[in-house]
Amino acid sequence: MKKKLFFITLFFLSISFLFAQTPFEGFDGFPWNTNVSEFLKKYPSAKETTDTDEIERNERTFQRSTNSVIRVYRFFDNKLYWGRTVYEDPELETEKAIFEKLIEIYGKFDDSNEWTENNKEYFSLWSNISSTFSIEVTEIKYFNTYGRATGINMFITYENTKIREEADEYFKEKKKKNIEL
Q: What is the pLDDT of residue 38?
């Protein structure tokens, strides 16, 4: 009986541990679906960088800089669905710490890819955290025409894949209206 009680207790403790480890689904403390006005209440000085293509897609983009990073927020139909943290020329120790912290929070990444294009080396990792939440980490190393490294940017992109699909569907339907057959 004691053995059975021990295993039942262990089972419930492990389940509570799993639920306690569920990562936050959103970006920079904002849950997905946060509207623009709620975002601007917290960051009234955020700079809107929405371009013509984004307006056509019913999107708005904002950017704000902190001491060490640039954060980019994208909204579709007034709902936050995408965020990016940008590190410009991080030190090697910072890069390592970023990867370690991401793995601590989100676990192992699902896949990776490397490629070179136009004097740039790309390295990308991504993971589907849940059925509606994904993260991609991309590092870009820049080289001059002599092959010397001139800089590094790291992007950590958080995305609500469900709202991304809604945005893609919206834009596709909008484009279909203008197609001549």
A: 97
Confidence tier at 21 by pLDDT (50, 70, 90):
low
Distances (CA, A) of 57 to 75, 95, 164: 10, 34, 11
Beta strand pairing call for 120-130 and 59-65: unpaired
Helices (H) and strands (E) in the chain, counts: 5, 10
pLDDT of 22: 74
Report the C-alpha gap between 115 and 120 in whole angstroms. 8
Task: Give the pLDDT band (50/70/90) at residue 12.
Answer: very low
CB within 8 A of 60, min separation 6: which ones? Answer: 36, 48, 50, 54, 74, 75, 78
How far apart CA 51 and CA 86 sit, in angstroms, is: 19
Residues 6+ apart with CB under 8 A from 119: 142, 143, 144, 145
What is the rounded average pLDDT of the residues 89-113? 91
- Higher pLDDT pick, 11 / 106: 106
DSSP string, 130-143: ETTEEEEEEEEEEE
What's the token pair of residue 51?
Answer: 């371009």
Beta strands in the chain (DSSP E): 26-27, 30-31, 47-48, 59-65, 70-76, 79-88, 111-117, 120-130, 133-143, 149-160
List the beta bridge partners of residue 113.
Answer: 124
